[in-house]
Write a structure and sequence with these properties.
Oligomer: heterodimer
Radius of gyration of chain A: 17 Å
Strand order of the largest sheet of chain A: 5-4-3-2-1-9-8-7-6
Strand content of chain B: 15-25%
Shape of chain A: globular
Helix content of chain A: 40-55%
Helix content of chain B: 40-55%
Order of helices and strands of chain A: HEHEHHEHHEHEEHEHEHEHH
Largest sheet of chain B: 6 strands, mixed
Strand content of chain A: 5-15%
Largest sheet of chain A: 9 strands, parallel
Number of strands of chain A: 9
Bound molecules: pyridoxal-5'-phosphate
Number of helices of chain B: 16
Distance between the termini of chain B: 51 Å
Number of domains of chain A: 1
CATH superfamily of chain A: Aldolase class I
Distance between the termini of chain A: 37 Å
CATH class of chain A: Alpha Beta
Chain lengths: 279, 406
């Protein structure tokens, strides 16, 4: 399965541009809409999809993603239904990697072995679990690697050179560099130190380094993509979905096209990134 | 449930990964990991630094007012007609509860680490007041996160915090109680990790907090042990304490854990009863899960979503419990029982009328359990209860429920 991730990063690198990683919350605002959003993402230019798993207490997320999780949970989203979204997507698209992103408790309660088996079965390629640092690798990371599911780890500005090797040790798929100390949805910080941090991480690993947190516009994607192997956009997509909903939080005809338009713009941003860097 | 084997000592935990059996650990975002490792280092150094211990003791004696008295509740004992009831009077501490013991310890650590800003979460507001107090005493700015529901029902403490110079940030997410305040404090911490010290108010969170808070609160049990030996020439038969996150309970239990004859009971908030969702009995009615940095008993649904819970007492209104309590439950050393809102209310009034002490609603839960057990025990048996806080903050809530107009 890791093959799908490697292949996608290799193919995009061959195009001479960074990868566009898009995050959205599974089940926001309902199962069918969110499946339609997922199917629309690759067509609009997304290369890798992060499928958010809602959790009642998302400690690392800002208000936008908190609200998206609440909408999804209110709509009856469960981990089993998140797998179902992945499975139906995978039936139509065998090439776009899917990374599940969320918190550990729903996985722990589902049961780690059962979770990994069902993830494989649904065509999931990787996991990002915010509250499992390397110190907790026995919980999920090692069992996931044994089943050939990528465990994508976050590196942050507080991850110094002393700690970096530990963070990279069992990381696979790609490294997700968090552009700032903070929660999702914050403003994009100064890009210059980010480029330095990416270079620092790349000197320790052969894995691609993607940068997220704060990337909201095509222009951000272009600037960050000049140095990173990929850019991750989450809150902007989640906000786009939120802004299209009715007052009761239901999907409208504008929901899926709105996401498509946004992602098309971001995709143009990553396609301009290296050209800009070469100037 | 499979009971883990009985350990040689109940006081040896946690292991170096911060685990008490399967409970505890460090389930935090990478941004926070370097900091909690630093904190652990600093805490280890401080523990063996005589000047740190000396400063703690000095502030304990002259600022908090330690040792707190051990009080024989003569009238209540006579009324109940059974075991002798002793209160460890943590409600007489500066700021009105046990919370200050931990705050003094942690602010000294924050200073050692060069942190310039304090954040805290609070439920009843007792920990918020204690945090604001030590922040004022040491000249550091302080932000306290408090659920919007709690801001309302614990209004006197909100005023106190503001007077002490703290900024109180109401949190509207969820039910607006302690869990939501803790989420928001963690978000602040991740954002301001370089400057900020997170002063956690209970024996929960990622390692080393559960161990560290326990050690700062263990002064309660250490003093009580000496005091009861002096008063009665022997150890108590039963120790009772209320359990929110579990700091006052572990503080009084820990020094007695290896004393075979001493039974212990932790009292959880039974709210409106365990049948529905309106309670906070994490051990009695919950299951192990991962939240706020540690694995512990939690109130959750079948999909691992955390439930909100309910208690009349803001300080017990938390769907989790410190990891050491989860372990003490599973190894069978401590018994955990629920007490309903109405039982706590009755106990509140009993203590007020019989002993002239207005307790907080949190220890009123412990007292309700004492009132149940004392009559069934012999007159030469001894109960020690942690009277963890005073009721000033609760008088308006209680007055309203009892229909006492102004
Ligand atoms: C007086 C008092 N007792 C008990 C508690 C519960 O906390 P813990 O279980 O950490 O002692 C609180 C919390 O606010 C409190 O104010």
């Amino acid at each position: 399965m890791t093959a799908r991730m490697e292949q996608r990063f290799a193919d995009v690198a061959a195009e001479g541009r960074p990868v566009l990683v898009t995050y959205f919350m599974g089940g926001d605002p309902d199962f069918d809409t969110s499946l339609a959003i997922m199917k629309a993402l690759p067509k609009a230019g997304a290369d890798v999809i992060e499928l958010g798993v809602p959790f009642s207490d998302p400690m690392a997320d800002g208000p936008a993603i908190q609200l998206a999780g609440q909408r999804a949970l209110r709509g009856g989203q469960t981990l089993a239904k998140t797998f179902e979204i992945a499975r139906r997507f995978r039936a139509e698209d065998q090439r776009t990697p899917i990374v599940l992103m969320g918190y550990y408790n729903p996985i722990y309660i589902y049961g780690v072995e059962r979770f990994l088996d069902d993830a494989l079965d649904a065509g999931v390629d990787g996991l990002i679990v915010v509250d499992l640092p390397p110190e907790m690798d026995d919980e999920l990371c090692i069992p996931a690697l044994k089943k050939d599911i990528n465990f994508v780890r976050l590196a942050t500005p507080t991850t110094d050179d002393r700690r970096l090797p530990k963070v990279l040790e069992n990381t696979s798929g790609f490294v997700y560099y968090v552009s700032m100390n903070g929660i999702t949805g914050s403003a994009l910080p100064d890009p210059a130190p980010i480029a330095g941090a990416v270079a620092r991480i790349k000197s320790h690993t052969k894995l691609p380094v993607c940068v997220g947190f704060g990337v909201k516009t095509a222009d951000h994607a272009r600037v960050i993509g000049a140095s990173a192997d990929g850019v991750v956009v989450g809150t902007a997509i989640v906000n786009q979905i939120a802004s299209s909903l009715t007052e009761e939080g239901r999907a409208t005809e504008a929901t899926v096209p709105g996401v498509e338009a946004l992602v098309r713009g971001l995709s143009a941003g990553v396609r301009a990134a290296r050209a800009a860097a070469a100037e | 449930m499979n009971q883990p084997p009985k350990p040689n000592s109940f006081r040896a935990g946690p292991d170096e990964d911060g685990r008490f059996g399967i409970f505890g650990g460090r389930f935090v975002a990478e941004t926070l990991m370097p900091l909690i490792l630093d904190l652990e280092d600093e805490w280890k150094k401080a523990k063996s630094d005589p000047s740190f211990q000396a400063e703690l003791e000095k502030l304990g004696a002259h600022y908090i007012g330690r040792p707190s008295p051990l009080y024989f509740a003569e009238r209540l004992t006579a009324e109940l007609g059974g075991a002798k009831i002793y209160f460890k009077r943590e409600e007489l501490n500066h700021t009105g509860s046990h919370k200050i013991n931990n705050c003094i310890g942690q602010i000294l650590l924050a200073k050692r680490m060069g942190k310039t800003r304090i954040i805290a979460e609070t439920g009843a507001g007792q920990h918020g007041v204690a945090s604001a107090t030590v922040a004022a005493r040491f000249g550091l700015p302080c932000v306290v996160y408090m659920g919007a529901t709690d801001v309302e029902r614990q209004a006197p403490n909100v005023f106190r915090m503001k007077l002490l110079g703290a900024e109180v940030k109401p949190v509207t997410a969820g039910n607006g109680t302690l869990k939501d305040a803790m989420n928001e404090a963690l978000r602040d911490w991740v954002t301001n990790v370089d400057s900020t010290y997170y002063l956690i108010g209970t024996a929960a969170g990622p390692h080393p907090y559960p161990e560290m808070v326990r050690d700062f609160q263990s002064v309660i049990g250490q003093e009580a042990r000496e005091q009861i030996l002096e008063a009665e020439g022997r150890l108590p038969d039963l120790i009772v304490a209320a359990v929110g996150g579990g700091s006052n309970a572990i503080g009084i239990f820990h020094p007695f854990l290896d004393d075979d004859g001493v039974k212990m009971v932790g009292v959880e908030a039974g709210g409106k009863g365990l049948d529905g969702d309106e309670h906070c009995a994490s051990i009695t009615a919950g299951s192990p899960g991962v939240l706020h940095g540690n694995r512990t008993y939690l109130l959750q649904d079948g999909d691992g979503q955390i439930k909100e819970g309910h208690s009349i007492s803001a300080g017990l209104d938390y769907p989790g419990i410190g990891p050491e309590h989860s372990w003490l439950n599973d190894v069978g050393r401590v018994e955990y029982v629920p007490i309903m809102d109405h039982e706590a209310l009755e106990a509140f009034q009993t203590l007020t009328r019989f002993e002239g002490i207005i307790p907080a609603l949190e220890p009123s839960h412990a007292l309700a359990e004492v009132i149940k057990r004392a009559p069934k025990m012999r007159k030469d048996e001894i109960i020690l209860m942690n009277l963890s806080g005073r009721g000033d903050k609760d008088i308006f809530t209680v007055g309203k429920i009892l229909g006492m107009g102004q």
